[in-house]
Write a structure and sequence with these properties.
This protein has about 350 residues and is an alpha/beta fold. The protein is about 40% helix and about 20% strand. The chain has twelve helices and twelve strands. Helix 1 (about 20-30) crosses helix 11, helix 3 (about 95-115) crosses helix 5 and helix 7 (about 180-200) crosses helix 8 (about 225-240).
Length: about 350
């Protein structure tokens, strides 16, 4: 029997909800998934999560990626030996927890870069904790870029097979508007089209969302569409791409769900996040495109307020893992496109 590919799963901050949603998700998925999850953490972190969740799942500490499939009811944990048995308080910012989160990302990324795993699935980190531990990165995406030698990465949301991309990310709305330009839009459209092809859409159809109400109403409500977005779309269309827009944001996501497009380029963070998460909060996951490795992720935080109570919903982690299983077949294509 052919051994299933492995996905390295990081829990994120070990005192947030990451450990709980990880053990719940992998227990629920079981051994029937097309890939097997190997959690990258201190085994004690997972065993504590199993207890608070009231599960009977066994945690098996391992030190090699080249193992036979785990037994039903058992989760394999690649031991990072970071916490040394320290009993950290749930839901409290702790630099030791931050150091463990960073170490897990480093180990998982190295395994993916070496081809030992088909990709990584990441749980939520706490930025304050990783900064306290000495990390200089703003978050996961920047850290993964540094570890893989990539200077530009983008976020692709996936929700029920539909893809959403972002022309701007973690900046204020004012700064996002300042960043919009014709060349910037062309680059974002081309990157989105490339990602769609990499992830299985051989002839991708992309829509560009407008910024202003009603697409600006020919300049009455703003001129970004006239000056930047529409000319950018025409430039890419002239090269033969199937791109339309700008389309008012109050319509374009509905049209995406109807199947008119394979993806939408949102103009700023909340424009795309609100659409995806309102439609299916637990089913919305994040894929980092531009990396030479597959990376899927939950798109929520550490929820320190409920950590350690065993009540966190594992839906998004389950979805992130299952999408990782689905996208593992594109691992070679991802490496070829983004590996340089």
């Amino acid at each position: 029997m052919t051994q299933r590919p492995a996905l390295a799963v990081t829990v994120g901050d070990p005192v947030g909800i990451g450990p709980e949603i990880t053990v719940r998700a992998l227990t629920e998925v079981g051994a029937g998934a097309s890939a097997r999850g190997v959690v990258v953490a201190d085994p004690a972190v997972l065993r504590r999560a199993v207890r608070v969740c009231g599960l009977s799942t066994e945690i098996r500490a391992v030190s090699s990626w080249d193992l036979p499939p785990e037994q039903e009811g058992t989760i394999d944990c690649f031991d990072i030996e970071e916490l040394g048995g320290a009993d950290l308080a749930w839901g409290v910012v702790d630099k030791r927890a931050g150091a463990a989160a960073v170490r897990a990302i480093e180990v998982a990324t190295k395994a993916a870069m070496e081809g030992r795993v088909a990709g990584i699935v990441t749980g939520p980190i706490n930025k304050e904790a990783i900064w306290a531990a000495g990390s200089e990165h703003l978050g996961h995406t920047e850290m993964l870029g540094a570890l893989t030698g990539v200077t530009r990465q983008n976020t692709m949301f996936v929700v029920r097979g539909k893809k959403i991309f972002f022309a701007t990310r973690h900046v204020s709305l004012r700064k996002a508007l300042d960043q919009v330009g014709q060349d910037q839009q062309v680059a974002c459209v081309e990157e989105a089209l490339t990602a769609l092809r990499v992830f299985g859409h051989d002839e991708p159809r992309l829509a560009v969302a407008a910024i202003n109400p009603h697409g600006g109403e020919n300049g009455a409500f703003g001129d970004e569409e006239i000056e930047h977005l529409a000319p950018a779309v025409e430039r890419v269309r002239a090269a033969g791409a199937d791109v339309v827009g700008p389309i008012p944001a109050d319509s374009v996501f509905h049209q995406l769900l109807q199947g008119r497009y394979d993806g939408v380029l949102a103009q700023y963070h909340d424009q795309g996040h609100i659409a995806a998460k309102t439609f299916d909060f637990d089913g919305t996951i994040s894929v980092t495109v531009g990396l030479p490795i597959l990376r899927t992720s939950v798109d929520h935080g550490t929820a320190f307020d409920i950590a350690g109570q065993g009540v966190a919903d594992p839906g998004t982690m389950r979805s992130a893992f299952l999408h990782g299983c689905e996208f593992a077949r594109f691992a070679d294509r991802i490496r070829a496109e983004y590996g340089g």
